[in-house]
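Onboarding guide, step 5: your first structure request.
Type a short instruction followed by the sequence, for example:

Predict the 3D structure of this protein.
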Amino acid sequence: MQIVKGFKRGEPTFLATLVGGVESCFEAVPLSQCIEQVLSENRDVMPEELSQRLPPQKEVDHQIELPSKASFGGPVFFQKKKERTLRLCIDYRALNKVTVKNKYPIPLIVDLFNRLGQAKGFTKMDLRKGYYQVWIAEGEKPKTTCVTRYGAFEWLVMPFCLTNAPAPFCTLMKKLFHQYLDQFVGIYLDDIVIYSNSMKDHVEHLCKVFKVLRENDLCVKREKCSFTQLTVQFLGHTISHGEIRMDGDMVEAIKNWEAPTKVLELRSFLGLANYCQRFIFSYLAIAAPLTDLP
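The system replies with structure tokens like these:
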């Protein structure tokens, strides 16, 4: 079991990243037999597409609180994803503008990184259309109306473009994984990272996470999952045992950013640069002349 030895020695030799078909990756990478068995037993949690049926109703429903009874209908359009598939989008800007904002706290990224940085091995999972697992609350569906050339339609489950969508989804994920959070599971929206200090623990942790996913009818994108890695890419950072670095693509994006000529453009740049401040000595002092601009 070479990967077990790799975990113990901290060697970056036995990375096992699932990209595309699982079977071909099993042949190309020396995954341990125990991990291979775990993945095989949980293939039903990693379907290529979600079932056409509605997900079972969970404890969390999404409500849209408006200050008036105004009706809305958002136009539909598509955006290309990195993998060249299309993402259905709805222009809910008018609805979002008048929606009472839910201030539910999103997990602090720094807290996640501090815990992950001490682990020796990682698995990263990406939920397949996770927001679709949250129902729209009864009486709220007309507010989600979207307009197409074939007519107007209401959503039964939560679409991605609503301003408060992250709040009920974060609530759901915390309810489902609360007993494992800060122990061996880190969650940011629909990204799940499992971190461990030994292969034995990692197999056990994987089984527990798969069990929660199956019991709650949640599915993951196996083409975006990476199992038993010594290094993991997470939220624009590269994390390995005792080390956290900025992802190379993020650094290049900052280096190649066009010089802003307007205050709004400057704020956009600072929003990205602030993400890197923990890696820049005296960042706040350096950025102060820019952040103090009216």
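Each response can be followed by summary notes, for example: Residues 54 and 157 are 8 Å apart (CA to CA).
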